[in-house]
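Quick bug: Major facilitator superfamily (MFS) profile domain-containing protein output formatted oddly.
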Amino acid sequence: MSEENKIELEDEKRGGGPPTTRSESSIESKSDQDDDERETSWQSIYLLTAIGMFCGIQFSIFFPTLWPFLNTVDPTASASFFGFITAAFSVGQGLASPVFGYWMNKAKSEYKHDYTFVKAGNKQILNIYVSWLSPRKRRVRQPLVFGISIMILSNIIFCFVEGFPEKQRRWVMMVARFFIGVGAGTIGVMRAYAATASSLKDRARAITFIQASYVIGMTFGPGIQVAFTPIGYPGLTAGAFHVDMYTSPAWFASIISFLSVLFIFIFLEESYAGIDKHADEEDSYTAMPTFDTISVAVCVLTQFTLMFIITNLETIGSLYAKMMWGWTNAQAVEYTGILQAVNGLVGVLVYALFAVKLGDYISQARERIFTIFGLALGVLYHVVTFPYPWGKDLHFELRNVTVHGKNETEELGCNPDKYRWCHYTKDVNFWIYASMYGVVLAACFPIVNISMNTLFSKILGARRQGTMQGIMLMAGSFARTVGPILVSWIFQEWGPEPIWGIEIFTLSVTAIFWIIFYRRMTPLNSNPKLNPYEYFHYAKGVLYRI
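Here's what came back:
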């Protein structure tokens, strides 16, 4: 056996440590160089992109039919209880995200070092032997499979809701949606994997795929549900087994979830090009400084702000359009749908730009500038579309319409008898609103989403990010839970003016934080330069310079 191989064997048996010979130093330098040259695991990222898109679909595919289904199986259920069912998904996702992230961080692979049967002097056989002997990496696989399995079981329970007594069905639906949200908490694991499986040069592009997948899934989910409408109700029934227009989305979700688990076992190959593998070892002497908590807090606040704004506009969108421009229910559904489609298309195009070229451009220390620019776009949208007092008065009239062959009276515009703010609130020009919503706001979300999350992963550094990515997702889920409840109440009592004011304030404060802490919002420096007698603390001790 050569002297170099002897040193290498002893060093790996010892589990790492400070070099004691010149040969060991050269070997360690070569290892560091290999870390820098590790490639992004695109196969796994593409797979998780597809799974993330489907999780987004599961969030929104039920929206068009959830209330009619609840009203069908439990006519006594109130609209307020429906709000709790809708919020249950986000609550489950928010609670589960940090848990799955913590699980991912703790599920470290154990590498067994035993060289008894290795032929001396043959390094290639040694490497193959160690790789074969080591257990398969399960940091991502375990929480993903567990979370998706919960989604499968919860969707099946949702499908059998009519097998329960009528008074219990609303509760069964709420519990099922809660645990579907719990399963969707694995989105945080996927985002953490994208941040740690990608090299720095590919970081923005990898995060774009995972971030965009969930948003695109939410965008196209309601459209997919249309394919199940021809099945009708009650559809195919056999006792408690029902396949109809209401349960078909859940059956579809269960099948795709099962295929997702199968693909995870077959195609997911975990690789971590963005992690310092030496610092990740228990007995490593590599220092990994603590990340800057203020910078992380600003990113988490930004995530909350972003989801708060988007959710609020989704919540009051149709009702706002009806009152502002005097549309009928049919017109509100049609025109609002067109606006949302344009908004989604522009958003997808912006995500595509990030995936192709723009992501590489912002990765060159431009994340802060783009985040502030995106927040400024959000402020611009609200300032331009604010219902200023010099606008026209809101219109109101009663019109006879025919709905399903029946003559009914429909309210068009803003009814001052129901909403006192109709007396003083002014209208907003539709074409100005449409252009700002379909272009400016549509670009705001992906620009902030990708820029901020890319920098967030760099601020955390080359460490396991599961828990922190879970906290980031929890902030968004909390916004999706609180936003609709708060905004619905404010809109009913005081109209759109205070909502626009709150959102301008929230976006402005968030942007100000980015400006104030601009110099702190930088990637973690894993190897800070120390002057003589300076030191810094890290998780495994203290680093001194003498």
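Actually, after a second look the formatting is fine. The longest strand covers residues 396-403. Closing.
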